[in-house]
Amino acid sequence: MSNSYRRPLLRNLVARLREPRKFLQVLTGPRQVGKTTLVRQAIADLEIQAHYASADDPALQSRTWLSQQWDLGRLRARNAPEGQAAVLVLDEVQKIPEWAGSVKAHWDEDSTSGTPLHVVLLGSAPLLLQRGLGESLAGRFELLRLGHWNFFEMREAFGWDLDQFIFFGGYPGAAPLIADLARWRDYVRDSLVETTLSRDILVMTRVDKPALLRRVFHLACAYSGQILSYQKMLGQLQDAGNTTTLAHYLNLLASAGLVTGVPKFAGEVVRQRASSPKLQAFNTALITSQAGLTIDEARVDREYWG
């Protein structure tokens, strides 16, 4: 990932961390879009004491671990120069059982004691993160959404042209690998897609048919940009169950920033839900990683290129 490129959202985060401590800062977005890099850049710009910890490792996912990290953040705040705050960064915090209640308790303790500790929460499963925020932390946080990189960002950071962006998409971590297409595809499939499915969805949410979830993802990539009825999806997928299951799995994939099913626009909610969705990948890298074409082959295939 290009650590020197500064995404526009960086200015917002720096400005909020310069203010007196008011709210938790919650930074959400798919994996590998630069959440951790952006926070590190903000801390470097501010030149303040900081402690970073990640709960992505299953062995660390406990409330005791969370309390230990918070205490380390408080230590940074006590050691900060007079008049300065410190920053505690907790990555993938939504993977800790009952995390929201623990965060609320520690945050309120610091508010009462006047501890100058800013807290930034990072998460790559926005649906799960926001569920905890709404349940326990209402009124205590601000949300910053970091999406996939757009063409202008990839051009500025890596010198890409439009055709490269259309084909390779907007994952900065994969950008240095594009000269070796097979290696690039393996990286996207193994380090991005499979990690997202296994760590952000299957571990965190009950999924009765994991193999079906993966097939729904592949189908959405193959038919991205096309309207496909749920009945036709059932015909394409083995052991698909019913349309409710398919719609639920599409919602899970959308919450992780992979693919979605866009409903037909209608004034009535009932008509929206009954409509056939347009399948859409959030990042064209996901489509290319599943296909077998080179960029030159893709350009001349007008049906594929669009």
TrEMBL record:
Domain of life: Bacteria
Pfam families, alphabetized: AAA_14 (PF13173), DUF4143 (PF13635)
Keywords, in A-Z order: ATP-binding, Nucleotide-binding
Domain DUF4143: 199-301
Gene Ontology MF terms in the entry: ATP binding
AAA domain location: 25-154
Bilayer-crossing regions: none
UniProt cross-references to PANTHER family, sorted A to Z: AAA+ ATPASE DOMAIN-CONTAINING PROTEIN (PTHR43566:SF1), CONSERVED PROTEIN (PTHR43566)
Record protein name field: ATP-binding protein
Lineage of source species: Bacteria, Bacillati, Candidatus Sericytochromatia, Candidatus Tanganyikabacteria
